[in-house]
Specification:
single chain; alpha/beta; TIM Barrel; 2 domains; 23% strand; globular
Length: 425
Amino acid sequence: MAAHFTLDGALKGWPLTAPACAATEIGARRWNVLAGDLPLPLAVLKRSALEHNLAWMQRYVAERGVWLAPHGKTTMSPELCAMQLASGAWGLTFANVWQARVGIAAGAQRILIANEVLQDADLDALDALLAQHAGLRVWFLVDSLRQLALIEDWAQRRGGSRVLNVLLELGIPGQRTGCRTQEEALLLARAIAASAAARLCGIECYEGLVATCDSAHDARAVTDLVQRALALAKAVDAENLWVDGETEILLSAGGSAVFDLVLPLLQCQQLSRPVQGVLRSGCYLTHDHGNYQRFVRLVAEREGLPESLQPALTVWALVQSVPEAGLALLNAGRRDLSFDIDLPKPVGWAMRTSREVQAPPQDWKITALNDQHAYLRFDPAGPAPAVGDRVELGISHPCTTFDKWRWMAVVEDDGAVSGAIHTCF
């Protein structure tokens, strides 16, 4: 993992007494998370789990004949994006033009911006990126005539010749962006086809917001969206509204929760041109111990998969106080950990003088977070954490842990620090 950046005391989790270090040289320090070589809290990525997840997802999409453009906004890490590309990802996905620069720096030649782009500053930036990087291709979403009019107005005022690649987004009533009806979407498709500023290259939708982690419900809800998207694609195809000169139509969907249920859309071959399905899962890389673990367990059950993804991201915290029976305070909080879906979960316990990690008792539970503290409740009659012990916390929803760290240590299974990544939030 080539990581060309410098680590120093300006970064949370780096020892203030340690000299600055190129990230490529951190392994030579022979540090270990469990030896007290780095201050806690510390976010870590287990190398073996990362490598397992990269291979698992690439094998999954290859066997199903779809492409993978993982969501780079999950990590915003050039090193991790480069790993995904090196493992075979077709491209990368981001939420806005500013984020896309990270994917380009990581070597991506294909970028999906799974969001609407419309303001002058973003269109100017996109035009500049395309001009600066030969061979770069970028697609973004359009979901309204008003947005298209703003793009056309920008193009007219700038006086350039740039024609932008877009995907028409089909949405869900009451949810996020996207056309609400087939009629609205088809009207927009006709307008894009007639536009001098945009090229209609495919259809996009996002199924994650209707998923509830109930297989019966999720299959019905996602299948309804998939069928609507297929009907729209066929209607656009019947009117020959796709851009000329493209050999393939892009159909894109897929978060990190129920990606198996969108395969009928991504595998569609019922149009006048070949279809290329693009799956956009991002959280598969690190997985988690909460939200995505629950969802992907159901994916494995529905598909009869013999193995699944592995949690790679955890945060080690220090027991700094046990002020009363049944309560310990850890030195990690909302500044360090995801809490938007589930609270962190104790998944490892190492006593103060030991490098041996054991499973914590099942009754241990994080019940609340402050900015810098986690409240660990436990049964006073059972094994109890002591001041100075270390607790490994599994997180739920990796996106909102990554944005709290400017770097993360990459560790081996024994806690040895062998590498590092940095983030660009």
